[in-house]
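=== RUN LOG ===
request id: a7f3
mode: sequence -> structure
chains: 1
length: 356
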Amino acid sequence: MKIAIIVPALVNQGPVTVARDIVSGILEEYDNVEFVVFYFDKSPEIEFPCKTLQIDLWKSIDFSEFDVIHTHMLRPDFYVWLNRHKTKNILKISTLHQNIVANLSASYNKLIAKTVFFFWIKFLKSFDKIVALSDVMKNTYASKFSKDSLLTIYNGRKLLKAVNKIEAEEEKKIFELKSKYNLIGVVALLTWRKGIHQLIEALTGLPNYALIIIGNGQELDVLKNLAIKLGVETRCYFLGYKKNGLDYMQYFDTFAMTSYSEGFPLSVLEVSQFNKPVVCSSIPLFKEIFTEKEVSFFELDNTESLKNALLYANENKYDLSSNLNKKVNEKYSYNMMINRYMELYKLAENSKNNIL
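=== RESULT ===
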């Protein structure tokens, strides 16, 4: 079986790392499978364990040798739609990594979000299977696609406790903070949608807590200025973008996921292996995949609720972290994700057999 994976670029971002994990896992577990990864932008931040080829969005290529085309994100979906008449006998799969309107509204505005949503759905209608990352997301799109074409596959992440050593100066600063405060950790692209400003606001009522932020993005300066305005800048350590945020998770006392919307919380899967308690916003997605026995929930834009959730997480860290680790290993494991996608890819073989 030969499978084409199409991603926007070889960048260290959630949808692309998920694609890499799918490829890596299937090549490790299954025989007679070949992958080729196609991408548009030349920005090789991560490597795939297979052949990779840069392509032009406006130039079609011959996919006739492939059994499956699997896309991730808007441009790959558009590319397949653009070349839909040349890929009629190939199983086409797209993984939806986000709530399109919610995510784009947070980054741009509702008009742009709804316009992109209209065209994106149009592109996706040319696919055979649409994968949602949760039942919440699946239900959001249920009216747009046939029941047979839409399904849920939860993300998984290969968990490795071996981490790289961080820079000495960074480690020194972290230990200085850790000697005085309970450390809240965040690993995220810094956009408003991630809700990190809520943590800075909560620090004003938590004198024994400090915040470590791993990531970069359009909200960086906004967050730094907010910390100064609220007088908590000495308890906010901005480390910027790191290729592997996993390296820093061992230092956190509590991990925070404060998003207004989310596709799937990969970083929560990663931090679970370090037995750290997690605080989550009480959005429908998180309520679907976690329970109050596994994470500490708070109400969005409610500083008192967030403060209480952080205190509760610290007081019940052993039970919460143990339960979370168990849930991740049982329900959101790497192998479960790999096997579900392989079952989906095998539909291409079944389809060919039926034709014969």
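=== NOTES ===
The mean pLDDT is 93.
The two ends are 17 Å apart (CA to CA).
=== END ===
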